[in-house]
Amino acid sequence: MHDRPRPPAAPARPVELTAHGDTRIDLWAWLQDRDDPTVIEYLEAENAYARAATTHTEALQKAIYQEIKGRVQETDVSPPTRRGPWDYFSRTFEGRQYPAHGRRPAGAVPGEGEVVLVDENTLAAGHEYFALGGLAVSPDDSVLAYSTDTTGGERYTLHFRDAITGGDLPDLIEDVYYGLAWANDNRTIFYTRPDAAVRPYQVWRHMLGTPAAEDALVLHEDDEHFFVSVGRARTGRYVLVGLDSKTTSEIHVVPADDPTAPARVVAPRRSGVEYSVEHHEGPGGGRFFIVTNADDARDFALMEAPDSASGPEHWVEVLPHRPGVRLDAVDAFAHHLVVSERRDGLQRLVVRRLSDGAEHEVSMPEPVYSAWVGENLEFDVDTLRFDYTSLVEPLTAYDEHLERADRTLVKRAPVLGGFDSGEYTSTRIWAIASDGVRIPISVVHRRDVALDGSAPALLHGYGSYEISSDPAFSFARLTLLDRGFVYAIAHVRGGGEMGRDWYENGRLTRKRNTFTDFIACAEHLVVSGYTSADRLGARGGSAGGLLVGAVVNLRPDLFRAVVAQVPFVDCLTTMLDPSLPLTVTEWEEWGNPRGDADVYAYMKAYSPYDNVAECDYPAILVTAGLNDPRVSFWEPAKWVAKLRATKTDDRPLILKTEMGAGHGGPSGRYDAWRDEALVLAFLIDQLTGGTP
User: Fold this and answer.
1) Is 308 part of any domain?
2) Is 628 one of the annotated active-site residues of the chain?
């Protein structure tokens, strides 16, 4: 056994927090003050402890890093995406952290006539962290707009570059958020701004060559439940401005030929009604295709309306509501619609001919997979770019002929090191939840793994925001599979895998279903012989970190090791404070404990931080980001401090905080692989006793 270092002390400083007549004593609330030098000192001490506590796995970490790196074709190019006279692509280079983005003449072979538009490595030079937020080329292909973040705080700076000469333009706009949309004059661009809580709440219009101080405010949203977004219709006819809360939508449009025209609403917001729009233009004129849950279409229906008269009174049904078939989105092309939907927990793509409504489903080669509409920049085309992956097949791009239903392989991500997908098997199994509901689990392992309970296993979960944890390939995961691990995804309620009801039954005052579903999946893996409780790990990030945090309070005996990345574990404290980033917008997902005593009591009963118990816990690795605008760094820091002071075991409890990054952790790919190597080494060490 290695000598264990001593963890840093987090002194208790009691603070009383009172709501609805209930008082909580928070001993570590002082960790919320990032301006207090002692807080930074404490986080640095925890990082030093994390390094010391994982020293014995350094050789394993290095081996894993080399394995991941050895599987990736480091110098590579993405599948090209055509727009007009150019094919656009991104390219990676061995030894460089970030991709470069470029273009070449349409139809040219890679390397022929290529022009580099933006090299992220150049932009990232001298910065500990770098992220490209947006990248948009003007309609005439002459100007590039791109935004950069060097802190991880997701507040970007917008730059402009002459795409012909490569020279940067003097225009510079600070403090923007995601989303860029060009008007057709090739001089006007729309962008969004975040408020103090990092909520995008405004859309602005900038004209090249003018000072940013003269930019025009296009739309301002006061309601803190709503986020604004901006994009450009594939037809090029409209700039689309979205306003979305967790339960309500409203979309405005600006003619791309007349960018100074006032934004016009497609359909006024109605509480509880969500919709999205896709523009189409044909011989009969322009129209909007509208995906909506209006009129009790719980799993959404498809409507259409003239773009000149788009209110609900003009909506005509194209696809009716089909209970159990979740209509996610529609992509419109000149002669076809591509419908993205979910049935039986799987993503499906259906091509619909506009002239007569004839349909065909895009066939998939495996029973458990992920597939989605890829980047399709042009409107008048006869092929669809879609992306496909599974737990055993790497990301693959196909072009499907919309009429003939045949396809061309564009690119399959290479996997080096002798990878053979036939050596692995993936399947879908079902657990029975405590209330009798069947919960799908996606599972992958090597074919030669004995399913007699002896294999180590990792169970991953998320289960919030109607986001689906779809099965996808991972270069890093092969490190576990090749060491005899079983890997499983618990498709718990709160996600979107099984339709709108699946989501509704895992949110607000039904959130506990998310946690008990995950427990049921873990128990099923054990009972079915995939693993045993002393060789089972759990992993989740952000809201998935809340999930695993709640689960280890409920069933600490069921897991040997847990990884909680940027976990939302002090959820009650955050949801009580409307001054914190994103709190008000999150009330529609979690409930408002500030305004409702019953919601307060419900959240308090599951909040991981508030329910740490005096008992034995699994080994736990926790990560945080000092600049994280989504889950404040102090949530995982406080949780770890409370666990240290309360739990009765001597298993490892490690907190690693990125001091110069945000929610996504390290930004460069090599740094991200090293970070993943640390996580995987921790799991291997705990679940197999460090077997190399």
Assistant:
1) no
2) yes
